[in-house]
DNA sequence: CGATTTTTCGTTAGCGTTTACGAAATGTGC
DNA sequence: GCACATTTCGTAAACGCTAACGAAAAATCG
């Protein structure tokens, strides 16, 4: 059925190893025979069986990508950037969308491990490192995206999330807001970092606000971001005096929050200026285009790809590299007050 | 390093095959020994090496997904639905985003073939069947999404695109529009089918319009949908008398077209009612929420998964199955005239 | 209790490739 | 033309698993 090395070797009267050498561009083969073999390979449309190769070399050319939600713009862009860069090196991406379900994520990682992937890229939705530890035990390189786990050895690529919070809050302050609320994310490294940035900026400007100005909106797995944003906005609407600025953990939440604000008769940005995070591609097309912090998702994907390639080409390079990108604020109408 | 069957077998004083039998739940093994083995397997955290298994069984548990653009809401949803359903059966998804580049797509398919995938799911951006034929030659089952290639044997899952065009156009007519323009898609089965539906609906109502009411907007690979939509809208603005209704090939193009219409001082839907296609998740949140035809992307993904599972479980089932779903119109403000 | 069936297990071979090693062919120095 | 290094190739074994077969053990039957 399908053509194997054996067939080509038999056809040309050489041994299988010689064919193998020609295909992998080994030095210990005469140019003439190599040419002869490659000609036949091309003519028969032969492709080496990577499964077999993988079994003996121990390298599968497969990269595992585990994200909470494939359709989420942030992770989607990462997948795209990663895929584009990995292509040249003939690595392929095995993806898993864990639906922000910690148990599912753990199972997926477990199963993917059986495919003997060369590297894992994980944006974990877990609070612990249980699934990551299994990867570590298996001796597979691991790149963390977006989430950090202090004390756990792995590589990291992402933006500086403290700066994200600072950028957003500083911007609102610069626009003249003084009563700035924050719809914070989950109790993870990201959620905490952004909230920390928010506090930093306020402190820097001597603005003191009650704790009630920071409202939680549950976990990513609770329900979709919009309804969580709407719920959080309820709480904010109840604050007296009403905030004049709002920094949301991400754009999806901001969309829900803004929707609710409109229903309450508020005008954006006049009554309350809003800043989101993620700069999702639809954020510029909303009823009121949303100011947002760009997380450089595309660039993150490409940087991960580069990191992986260097990791796999010289396995004993850096033990634990950390690539931190600068976030960027994209100002739009939702915060334009002057 | 990593534990193998051999190790477990040696530990327990049984043969490797016995371990294999226990793991695959074979009938020809005593319950007692099976239990003994499974206990040890669990305790050692053993997972069979799928690469090795794949080499001998010829089945990799890997499904290839080739789409023009992973971040496109339609394909993203499909990937998600597919991944979710395949999970239970322990199949994994290898994805490739071809960036709507026909050459890239061909190369990707070629490379993926080397991984000996169990099945291909392709939303082709090619006009010919060159890459698909290679899949066919390799004897790998193929499911086509969204695009059909008449005369080419494969499975198909997607919506009825003629009906998409009819639904959109009938709706505009029902809203009172009579001069209905169409920004058509590329010269592929989808583009043609939707344009055909548009013509059908007009004919059914005895509406005759000049050819200039159908404007092309280039290929998907030309540039992003929005700028293509803007460009197409230029042509439409030049029509005398100006159309009072517009059916766009997809939502992204509709966004561009509407943007340009706003700039020209038109009001939507009052001056021109707009219907898109795809019902992307941001379409309801636009400045003017967009009426759109839902393509059932999530359902498509799930149906594909079911099809694949049945294909792989009984390989000699139907030769060429075709699953056609009904599109659904979601009415919003952009076409609300009465 | 011996003959026969059924259950349980081990042996051998092979999936398609690469690695390690050694042998043959070719080239180089004098 | 001989000793040696270099280039080019082939043989054997292995990667971790499963398929096919047959042997041993246990169960069933008259």
Explain what you see.
2 copies of one chain form a homodimer. The first copy, chain A, is α/β, with parallel strands linked by helices. Chain A folds into 3 domains: 5-48, 434 Repressor (Amino-terminal Domain) (Orthogonal Bundle), CATH 1.10.260.40; 56-159 and 297-325, Response regulator (Rossmann fold, 3-Layer(aba) Sandwich); 161-295, 3-Layer(aba) Sandwich (Rossmann fold), CATH 3.40.50. Chain A is built from 12 helices and 12 strands. The first copy, chain A, has helices at residues 5-12, 16-23, 31-43, 50-57, 73-87, 102-113, 130-137, 161-174, 189-204, 225-237, 251-263, 297-313, and strands at residues 62-67, 92-97, 119-122, 142-145, 155-159, 180-184, 214-216, 245-248, 273-277, 291-294, 322-325, 328-330. In chain A, the strands form 2 sheets. In chain A, strands 2-1-3-4-5-11 form a 6-stranded parallel beta sheet, with helices on both faces. In chain A, strands 7-6-8-9-10-12 form a 6-stranded mixed beta sheet, sandwiched between helices. In chain A, strand 6, helix 9 (189-204) and strand 7 form a beta-alpha-beta unit. In chain A, helix 10 (225-237) crosses helix 11 (251-263). The longest helix of chain A has 17 residues, at 297-313. The mean pLDDT of chain A is 92. Chains A and B meet through helix 4, helix 5, strand 2 and helix 6 of A and helix 4, helix 5, strand 2 and helix 6 of B. Strand 2 of chain A pairs antiparallel with strand 2 of chain B. Chain A binds a DNA duplex (30 and 30 nucleotides) through residues 4-6, 14-18, 20-21, 24, 27-30, 33, 48-58.
């Amino acid at each position: 059925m399908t053509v194997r090395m054996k067939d080509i070797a038999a056809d040309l009267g050489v041994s299988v190893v010689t064919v193998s050498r020609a295909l992998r561009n080994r030095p210990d083969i005469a140019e003439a025979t190599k040419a002869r073999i490659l000609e036949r390979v091309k003519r028969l449309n032969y492709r080496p069986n990577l499964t077999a190769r993988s079994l003996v070399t121990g390298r599968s050319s497969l990269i595992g990508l585990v994200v909470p939600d494939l359709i989420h713009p942030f992770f989607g862009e990462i997948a795209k950037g990663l895929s584009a860069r990995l292509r040249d090196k003939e690595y392929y991406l095995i993806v898993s969308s864990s639906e922000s379900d910690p148990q599912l994520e753990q199972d997926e990682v477990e199963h993917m491990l059986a495919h003997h992937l060369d590297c894992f890229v994980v944006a974990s939705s877990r609070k612990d490192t249980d699934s990551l530890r299994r990867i570590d035990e298996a001796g597979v390189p691991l790149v963390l995206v977006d989430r950090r786990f202090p004390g756990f050895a792995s590589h990291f690529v992402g933006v500086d999330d403290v700066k994200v919070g600072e950028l957003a809050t500083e911007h609102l302050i610069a626009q003249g807001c003084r009563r700035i609320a924050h719809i914070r994310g989950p109790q993870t490294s990201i959620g905490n970092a952004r909230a920390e940035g928010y506090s930093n900026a306020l402190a820097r400007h001597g603005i003191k606000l009650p704790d009630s100005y920071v409202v939680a909106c549950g976990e990513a797995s609770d329900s979709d971001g919009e309804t969580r944003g709407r719920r959080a906005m309820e709480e904010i609407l109840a604050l007296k005096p009403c905030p004049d600025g709002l920094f949301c953990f991400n754009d999806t939440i901001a969309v829900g929050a803004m929707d609710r604000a409109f229903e309450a008769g508020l005008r954006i940005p006049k009554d309350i200026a809003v800043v989101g995070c993620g700069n999702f591609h639809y954020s510029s097309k909303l009823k009121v285009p949303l100011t947002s912090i760009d997380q450089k998702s595309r660039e993150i994907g490409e940087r991960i790809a580069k990191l992986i390639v260097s990791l796999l080409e010289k396995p004993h390079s850096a033990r634990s590299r950390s690539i931190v990108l600068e976030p960027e604020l994209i100002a739009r109408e939702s915060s334009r007050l002057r």
